[in-house]
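User: C-alpha cells in, sequence out, please.
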C-alpha cells in the first residue's frame, strides 16, 4: 500500500491524534491471569457430572474456547484495526479452529462425519430431500386462479435477503465493480454447468437471470459500489475520545470506532502484465470454489440449507475473505511485500481441505460426467481466455505499465501497524 505521503488524494482525508492508550496496548499478563482463574473456576467449582457425553462436550467446548483465547492473544495483527485488532485476530483464530475441525472430518468416513455432526446438532444426520426448483417455470400459472404467481412468490424467501446482502458485502470486499459483475455472471453459468451433479442448481431461467443476476446480485453490487464511494470520499478523523467535547461527540466517536480507520481504493490492474492477469484469474477462481463448496458440503454432509451451521460458515468465510483478499492485494501490488499474509495462508488451506472432503465423501457426485454442451462451452471459454492472453501480452503493442519505483516504500501492511498503513 502507499504510505500517506504517496497518496495525495487521501492525505487530507485522514487526521489522527490517537495515542498509545490503554485501549490499544497489549495486556498479555492480564489475559493470562484471567485465563488461569477461569479454568480453575469451571474445573474445580462447577458441579461435576458422571454423564460422559456431557463431559465430552464440555471438554471440547472449553478446549476450543481456550485455543481461540490463546491464539487471538498471541497472533500478529492483520491489515484491519477497527474496531480493534483483537477482533480480526479472533477471526484468524476462528478460521484456524475451523481448519482443524475440517482436518479431523477429512480423516473420518462419510458415515462417521455425519454422525459427528449429528452429535453436535441432533437434527442432522438424515439424507437430504432433493428439491426441484425448475419443474414449473411459468411465472403466471392459470391453473392456480387463487394464486397464479405462486411460482414467483415461492422463491421470495429469506434467502433473497441473504443473497442480496452477500453480494453487497462482496462488492465492498472486492472494491471493484467489474470483478463483482464478472463473478456474479460466472456463478450463474456454473450453476447451469453443475446442475447434473447437484439438482438444486437447476432453476428457472427467470430465477437465474432476473431474480438472482439482476435483482439480488445486481442490486447488491450497486449498493456495494455506492458504499465504496462513501468510504473513499469520507474524511477519517480519529481524535482521542477524551479530547472531544460533549457527550454527543463522544458517542459519535465510539460508534465511528466500528468504521474503517482509512480506506484504500483497489486497482487490480487486470491487464498490466501477464503475471498479474493470471493472478487475478486465480483469485477469482478461489472465490468461485469457496461459493461452490457451500453447496457441495451441504450435499455430502447432509446439512439442510436453512440450518444455522451454513450461516455460521458463510459469516466466517466472509470475514476471512475480507482480510485474505486485502492481504492478497497487498502481496500482488507491493513489490516490498515478500510474505504471503497469514489469513490468506489459512484461507487457502481451508479451501483445499474443503475440496478434499468433497472429493472423498462425494466422489460419486463430483465424478458424474459432464454433458457434451458443458464441455464444449468451457473448452471454448478456456481457449478464448488463453488466446486473448497470448494476443494481449505478446502481439499487441506494449502499453505503459505502472512503475513500482517510489510508489511502494513500506512492507506488508500489518504487524501492529508499524509497517504499511492499516485500515
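Assistant: Sequence out:
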Amino acid at each position: 500500500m502507499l504510505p500517506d505521503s504517496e497518496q495525495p488524494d487521501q492525505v487530507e482525508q485522514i487526521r489522527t491524534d490517537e495515542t498509545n492508550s490503554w485501549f490499544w496496548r497489549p495486556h498479555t499478563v492480564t489475559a493470562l491471569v484471567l485465563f488461569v482463574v477461569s479454568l480453575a473456576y469451571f474445573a474445580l467449582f462447577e458441579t461435576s457430572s458422571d454423564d460422559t457425553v456431557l463431559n465430552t462436550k464440555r471438554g471440547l467446548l472449553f478446549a476450543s474456547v481456550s485455543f481461540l483465547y490463546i491464539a487471538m492473544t498471541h497472533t500478529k495483527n492483520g491489515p484491519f484495526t477497527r474496531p480493534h485488532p483483537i477482533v480480526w485476530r479472533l477471526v484468524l483464530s476462528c478460521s484456524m479452529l475451523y481448519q482443524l475441525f475440517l482436518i479431523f472430518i477429512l480423516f473420518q468416513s462419510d458415515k462417521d462425519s455425519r454422525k459427528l455432526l449429528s452429535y453436535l446438532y441432533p437434527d442432522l444426520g438424515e439424507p437430504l430431500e432433493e428439491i426441484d426448483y425448475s419443474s414449473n417455470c411459468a411465472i403466471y400459472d392459470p391453473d392456480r386462479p387463487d394464486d397464479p404467481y405462486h411460482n414467483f412468490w415461492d422463491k421470495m424467501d429469506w434467502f433473497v435477503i441473504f443473497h442480496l446482502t452477500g453480494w453487497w458485502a462482496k462488492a465492498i470486499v472486492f472494491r471493484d465493480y467489474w470483478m463483482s459483475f464478472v463473478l456474479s455472471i460466472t456463478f450463474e453459468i456454473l450453476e447451469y454447468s453443475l446442475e447434473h451433479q447437484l439438482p438444486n442448481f437447476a432453476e428457472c431461467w427467470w430465477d437465474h437471470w432476473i431474480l438472482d443476476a439482476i435483482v439480488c446480485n445486481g442490486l447488491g453490487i450497486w449498493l456495494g459500489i455506492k458504499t465504496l464511494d462513501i468510504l473513499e470520499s469520507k474524511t477519517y478523523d480519529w481524535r482521542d475520545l477524551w479530547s472531544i467535547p460533549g457527550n454527543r461527540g463522544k458517542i459519535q466517536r465510539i460508534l465511528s470506532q466500528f468504521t474503517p480507520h482509512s480506506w484504500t481504493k483497489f486497482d487490480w490492474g487486470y491487464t498490466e502484465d501477464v503475471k498479474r492477469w493470471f493472478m487475478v484469474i486465480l483469485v477469482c477462481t478461489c472465490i468461485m470454489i469457496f461459493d461452490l463448496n457451500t453447496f457441495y458440503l451441504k450435499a455430502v454432509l447432509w446439512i439442510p440449507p436453512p440450518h444455522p451451521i451454513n450461516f455460521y460458515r458463510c459469516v466466517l468465510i466472509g470475514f476471512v475473505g475480507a482480510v485474505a483478499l486485502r492481504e492478497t492485494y497487498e502481496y500482488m501490488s507491493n513489490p516490498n511485500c515478500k510474505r504471503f499474509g497469514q489469513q490468506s495462508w489459512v484461507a487457502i488451506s481451508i479451501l483445499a481441505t474443503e475440496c478434499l472432503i468433497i472429493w472423498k465423501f462425494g466422489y460419486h457426485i463430483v465424478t458424474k460426467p459432464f454433458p457434451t454442451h458443458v464441455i464444449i462451452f468451457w473448452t471454448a471459454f478456456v481457449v478464448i481466455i488463453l488466446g486473448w492472453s497470448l494476443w494481449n501480452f505478446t502481439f499487441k503493442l506494449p502499453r505503459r505499465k505502472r512503475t513500482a519505483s517510489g510508489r511502494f516504500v513500506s512492507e506488508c501492511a500489518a504487524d501492529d501497524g508499524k509497517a504499511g498503513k492499516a485500515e
